[in-house]
Amino acid sequence: MSEFLPDPTGPFVSDLFSFPAHLLESQNYATSSGHYVAQLNLLSQTYSGTRTVMGDGSCFYRSFLYGLIMQLADEGNEDERVRIEEYIKGSLATLTSQGYEEMIMEGFQEELLDLLSQIPPSRTSDEINLHNILIHPNGPSQMSTWYCRPLCSSYIKSNPETFKPVLLIDYPSIDSYCKSQIEPSSVESEEISIQAIVSAFGVKVNVEYLDGHDGEKVMRHVFGEGRIEIDMLYRPGHYDLLYRK
Amino acid sequence: MNRDDIYAMTQKRLRKELKQLEKSDDDTIYLRPIKVGELLRWNALLRGPDGSPYAGGIYGISVNVDSTYPMSPPTIKFLTKIFHPNVNYNTGDICLDILKKEWSPAWSLISACRAVLSLMDDPEASSPLNCDAGNLIRAGDMTAFNAMARMYNVENAREFRFPPKPKPKAEQPQATKKTT
């Protein structure tokens, strides 16, 4: 299923492109045998924009953080911004109590708090500036993106009864799952880690599955609950951001 | 922001790691930058684990990072020649998952060194960089493997010494050992 490859070199998150025109142009969907074009047309009834995200194994976390931070800049989301900031401030103590080294984790937490502090009071005035901060290769977003991984592990460790039944089928312990399947920067997220991260942040993520299987419907998976909703497109192996009409 | 900023993050992290090392009284690993104030190139001394054929030897390793650390792993190589299935005898290259695809920035230089030390204690014969060593273990001939490893230990690993410990100040609180 890797015939449509994400870009491992481009910017962390692209400019806003028209959907689905951009994907039709940049990928070979038109000449593919699957029902991709039909599915993209179905999705275009709901979505009109997309941002493509770098394909380096962190695309889900990157899409998540980008979508979240941008929406925290929206007017009316001040409460959410305060809530998320409080959550991040408290996260270090939780991680430390779970055995993570404070000296190491605080460097990442500081970067994410720095990123949150750079959210302008209103997105309308400063959207481009915020976008540039988020995609800067040497800015705070790289370390902040990784920090989502231990936050994800931390949520799983704090709620073992939810995750144990699923995890212990394939992994000897929750700890070994987190160490090998969540924390390494090159490991893609999967349903368990997505479930954990949306619950940890209290945010809703809608994922449209572009799998080419059926030209008459597109599967949508909804993760978590919350006032902030982030829309994503999943093409097997990769996540991008979607924007509604 | 410019190119130096990621380096600033790297420096900040490495300075913290060094500070913690200077407080530690670990007598199995001695890890320091080669040159004072230059934090990208480090060396470490590892005490061969008791009960392994490397016991009694002291192994030098080089630990190098670039300005993408800690997002990418350090490059670690043996300086002392060692007979071990996961170490290339001539180049010192090490095959260890956490130094490659399982690296996460939650590891530090000292915890990476600890992982090398536990690899010495527990060789992984299925992914050999030294086929002779790997074959002996896979054939179940631990006597031969241990004899070879011990011979090279005596021959190569007697060169380095741990630096003398600073005199303990009266009644220091017991440091708790952390495993990451």
From TrEMBL, chain A:
EC category: hydrolase
GO cellular component terms listed in the entry, alphabetical order: nucleus
EC numbers for this chain: 3.4.19.12
Recorded superkingdom: Eukaryota
Keyword Protease listed: yes
Keyword Protease applies: yes
Record lineage: Eukaryota, Sar, Stramenopiles, Ochrophyta, Bolidophyceae
Keywords of the record: Hydrolase, Protease, Thiol protease, Ubl conjugation pathway
Signal peptide: none
Organism: Triparma laevis f. longispina
The protein, known as: ubiquitinyl hydrolase 1
Domain OTU, residue spans: 48-245
CDD domains: Otubain_C65
Single GO molecular function: ubiquitin binding
Catalytic activity: Thiol-dependent hydrolysis of ester, thioester, amide, peptide and isopeptide bonds formed by the C-terminal Gly of ubiquitin (a 76-residue protein attached to proteins as an intracellular targeting signal)
Example GO biological process: protein K48-linked deubiquitination
UniProtKB/TrEMBL annotation, chain B:
Domain of life: Eukaryota
Active site location: 95 (glycyl thioester intermediate)
Compositional bias ranges of the Low complexity kind: 171-180
Cross-referenced Pfam families: UQ_con (PF00179)
Keywords: ATP-binding, Nucleotide-binding, Transferase, Ubl conjugation pathway
UniProt xrefs under InterPro entries: Ub_conjugating_enzyme (IPR050113), UBC (IPR000608), UBQ-conjugating_AS (IPR023313), UBQ-conjugating_enzyme/RWD (IPR016135)
Region (Disordered), start-end ranges: 160-180
GO MF assignments: ATP binding; transferase activity
UBC core domain boundaries: 9-158
Keyword ATP-binding: yes
SMART domains with a match to the protein in the record: UBCc
Family: Belongs to the ubiquitin-conjugating enzyme family.
Protein name: UBC core domain-containing protein
